[in-house]
Write a structure and sequence with these properties.
Length: about 425
């Protein structure tokens, strides 16, 4: 926060040379940021171990794409409501308790799956709601603490490491899960293999709760304004008028792509090990790409790097029109993983730069993070509803391909709205209004 105060005190008018010197000097994560990364890493490992296979688990009980969509939709709606309602507690009470609740409720989700067994497919709305509440608790608290322990100088570095840890988790955890399910046995979705990975996830979540107690309790400031995020959209010339549509477009892709490819790979191969291998290969590429982007991606390159990432992520879907099999799905996974960091790091960093652009924005960081997450979840809900409607109307390979291409092209809209914010400093943009 000292860097933010320095920036504000000088009105943002630093020379290019001094900016670069300050950037090079401060591009190092503080201990609390490192600890937050560890908690995030544990959360990512637990989710990666079982997240993909929960959808496969449900699919094996009832071969129904729409059912998987309803599960995702329940998660997204519950997550959006949790973000908005929990904002008051995070700002006025104890945000670290909310972070721990997020990890704890995630553990509860897997307890329910273990207890319900095959009945999980009949209770997808309940399970989705529990998972959404867990995600809302965790990500709201995480993003607020993330804002507080980083600054514009080290935010790209933190996001690079965060992506690297997420990629490492996504690389190894699903691969291990696939091997466990295949070798121990799945019993048509109710065998010991699935019980093992859900139990392991439960244990990792418990460890995450324990580690979170080493994070310092953050200072409280101000009173939560329920509709602050909505009011700023009414302000003429507000930069959030560009940001919110961009975040919504980002969410459209996330809402569907988070679950569909694991199912498509399982349908193509009927083998959980292949599902794990897919995430092993694609996440290995993402790991290297996130590391490189976090290390070398400079703020002045954000606009063009995001555009390149968007174009390549869309083009990665095209091979599926030739044939949908493990090979073409893997091509998509590798290409998308390679270029995804170029898209998501500038997007995330710039939005959080906007939250910390002045004292008024920083003071309302909780409300702004809530509106950010509401925009993302709105996009996810839109994307998932489109998926459910289309797949319920007609289920075929060609329809699925066009659906994926349409939904997968939403990052283009995100870039169109963000490109102005990625060109210059936020202060320079304000002066031109």
């Amino acid at each position: 926060m000292e860097n933010l105060k320095h920036h504000l005190q000088h009105g943002g008018r630093l020379t290019s040379r001094s900016k670069q010197q300050q950037h090079d000097k401060d591009k190092k994560l503080v201990p609390q940021a490192i600890l937050l990364l560890i908690v995030h890493g544990l959360f990512a490992v637990a989710q990666a171990l079982s997240g993909t296979f929960v959808n496969v688990y449900i699919w094996k009980v009832k071969n129904d794409f729409a059912l998987i969509g309803w599960f995702a939709l329940a998660t997204q709606v519950a997550g959006a409501l949790t973000f908005w309602l929990t904002g008051k507690w995070v700002k006025e009470h104890n945000k670290m308790m909310v972070l721990r609740l997020g990890v704890s409720v995630s553990a509860l989700f897997y307890v329910l799956v273990l207890v319900l067994g095959k009945q999980s497919a009949d209770l997808v709305l309940l399970l989705g709601a529990v998972q959404g509440v867990a995600a809302g608790f965790f990500w709201l608290a995480f993003n607020v603490v993330y804002f507080e322990v980083t600054s514009p100088e080290d935010r790209d570095l933190f996001n690079g490491w965060s992506g690297l840890l997420g990629s490492a988790s996504g690389m190894l955890a699903p691969w291990i899960s696939g091997l466990i399910i295949t070798r121990i046995g799945d019993g048509n979705g109710n065998g010991s293999g699935y019980r093992w990975i859900f139990t392991i996830s439960l244990v990792v979540f418990v460890i995450g709760v324990i580690v979170s107690f080493f994070l310092k309790k953050r200072k409280l400031s101000g009173t939560y304004s329920w509709f602050y995020g909505f009011r700023i959209l009414k302000v003429k010339g507000s930069l959030w008028r560009l940001t919110i549509p961009a975040l919504t477009a980002q969410g459209i892709r996330e809402g569907v792509f988070a679950f569909i490819f694991g199912i498509l790979i399982f349908i193509s191969t009927n083998n959980e090990t292949k599902v794990g291998n897919f995430w092993l290969y694609s996440s290995a590429v993402a790991l290297i790409s996130f590391w490189a982007a976090g290390r070398w991606l400079k703020p002045r390159y954000r606009k063009h790097s995001m555009l390149l990432g968007v174009i390549m992520m869309v083009l990665a879907i095209v091979p599926l029109f030739w044939k949908v099999n493990y090979g073409t799905l893997l091509i998509y996974g590798v290409v998308a993983a390679l270029f995804f960091p170029l898209y998501i790091i500038p997007m995330t960093s710039r939005v959080f730069d906007l939250i910390g652009r002045d004292e008024a924005s920083a003071e309302h960081r909780v409300e702004l993070i809530v509106i950010r997450e509401l925009a993302l979840n709105s996009g996810r809900i839109i994307g998932t509803i489109i998926f459910i409607v289309v797949i319920s109307w007609k289920e075929s390979v060609m329809v699925m391909n066009w659906l994926l291409l349409g939904i997968g092209s939403s990052p283009v809209i995100a870039w169109l709205f963000m490109r102005r914010l990625l060109t210059d400093s936020l202060i320079s943009i304000d002066k031109r209004r």
